[in-house]
Design goal:
34% of the residues lie in helices and 19% in strands. The chain is built from 5 helices and 4 strands. The chain has a 4-stranded antiparallel β-sheet. The two termini are 15 Å apart. The protein is α+β, with helices and mostly antiparallel strands. It is elongated. It folds into 2 domains: 7-48, Arc Repressor Mutant, subunit A (Orthogonal Bundle); 60-141, Lrp/AsnC effector binding domain/regulation of amino acid metabolism (RAM) domain (Alpha-Beta Plaits, 2-Layer Sandwich). Helix 2 (24-31) packs across helix 3. It comes from Neolewinella marina.
Length: 160
């Protein structure tokens, strides 16, 4: 789909990534089209799943989620359906906000957000370590966030 996006589509994506609450009228003024074709383009981007969702970015600290960890997970591949069973468990653990299959020293990378260290400790020992398919866990504790950009890095001017 990316090779079918023109300069106007790319401009729409850039603007919506910066501010998804912009009105269609304001968006149309910024991209130089009238409101009807602007809305038509946005709908097409949604239908083609280029735009997957709109949501509020909530400050974790503002709602009392003060601990963010990344956990490297190595599975015990001798267990039947290790991957499938592990992924089923990941889906139901609310504190796991992201899960990636990776290469290197582990099989998965989890991003976990919790209220505090005791909450993380309970999650680690009473939930994660109870998953039979896990062979090894390694926690990477974050101290602070120095960059958290949601805009994807691509040529928004269409001059690649």
């Amino acid at each position: 789909m990316s090779d079918k996006l023109d300069k106007i589509d790319l401009s729409i994506l850039k603007i919506l990534q910066d501010n998804s609450k912009i009105t269609n009228l304001d968006l149309s003024k910024r991209i130089g089209l009238s409101p009807a074709p602007t809305l038509e383009r946005v709908k097409k981007l949604e239908q083609n799943e280029v735009i997957q969702s709109y949501h509020a970015k909530v400050s974790p600290e503002a709602i009392g989620l003060n601990v963010k960890t990344f956990v490297l997970v190595s599975l015990d591949w001798r267990k039947n359906q290790a991957r499938e069973n592990f992924l089923e468990q990941v889906q139901i653990i609310e504190e796991i906000t992201e899960c990636y299959i990776i290469t290197g020293e582990a099989d998965f990378l989890l991003k976990i957000v919790c209220k505090d260290i005791p909450t993380y400790e309970r999650l680690l020992f009473k939930t994660l370590q109870q998953i039979d398919e896990i062979e090894r866990l390694k926690t990477l504790m974050t101290l602070s966030t120095v960059k958290d950009v949601k805009r994807l890095p691509f040529d928004y001017d269409g001059e690649a």
